[in-house]
Design goal:
- The termini are close together.
- With about 80 residues, the protein is mainly α.
Length: about 80
């Protein structure tokens, strides 16, 4: 999946064996991008942090992402 597919601002490919691994890679990428001064990723980082403040909405995003990951062809 890409950063953009997960709600981010770029097309960086994020890889992992599971949806959870890809989500964690996105989390790291967003934090690193913003820390390096890339303001285009700030909104996605804020959204990511906000998901866990609103568990029902966050769980909907999580389930949707897991479903999208499962539908991807294997490399």
């Amino acid at each position: 999946m890409t950063c953009r597919q997960l709600g981010g601002a770029c097309d960086l490919p994020l890889r992992g064996e599971t949806a959870d691994a890809v989500i964690k890679a996105q989390d790291r990428h967003l934090k690193e991008a913003v820390a390096a001064g890339d303001s285009t990723h700030q909104a996605a980082l804020d959204d990511m942090r906000g998901r866990w403040k609103h568990p029902v909405k966050g769980m909907g995003w999580y389930k949707s992402t897991k479903r999208e990951f499962a539908e991807l062809p294997e490399d």
